[in-house]
Amino acid sequence: MLGVTCEPFGKDHAADGGSYDTGKIIAEEIYNYEAPEPVPYEWTDLEGTSMSSSKGHVFTLEQWLEVAEPELLKYFIFRSKAMKAKNFDPKFPLLELYQEYRQLEDVYFGKEEVSESREEQMKRIYELSQVDNVPEHYPKRVPIRLAVTIVQVARDMDHMLKILKKKGVLKDADDWEIELAEERLKRAENWVDKYAPEEALIKILDELPDEVRKKISEKQKTCLKILARNISEKDYEPVDIHNKVFEIANEHDLKPVKLFQAIYMALLGKKSGPRAGNFLTALEDDFVIERFKEAAS
Q: Does 288 fall in a domain?
């Protein structure tokens, strides 16, 4: 026999008289082998609709690995009880799954505190989610939303890694962490190509039209000049530059949302865009500085 001791299967196979009951009889009465422990699970929906191979409504393992690490698939399975219904959506909810997994990692390595009972549960889920051994130390990772942003604005992989090292995201990263980063960036690029909603796509203005510059108020221009100066003096990580925007706006009696809008207007020609910390981190400092100065002129 194969030595199987545990057998997960869809809930339909767990019905009385179903395939598990039949297989158990065969295992025990014909082969004199103790049947594996049954673990029935609920079906998984895809974007709110039951998967169906006959209708072609499926999401294969190959498709998963194009846009997400195998550890995320194990986490998706283990984060809730087997008989709890699951729904997978490869669009924005997949990015949220990435972020949940990072929080799990934060708790495991003591970067975030939760209740004692929740900590024990989350640590066990993290261990079960690993394909290989648990990392020896807290891994440096490229945040998925930053990865989605940078793959749309950087020239190539070398350029992306150069920016991420310069901005501190991959500062002093080990070789295996660089490999993790490269794999995530490739998956982020696949996600942008295959599943990104329209609002996640980025098109930087090649030039700043006069009509866009005229829509930026004097207070916004003042804050853009200050932000440009700050960026020229220091390399900021995503969260730091995001916080700096709030700080500058508050110091100049400007609602932070108005400064964020000015940033997007200067770079994208519209009032909204990706999270500013990730967005500005992904761009070359010299370009951002000159564009902000131009917008403030």
A: yes
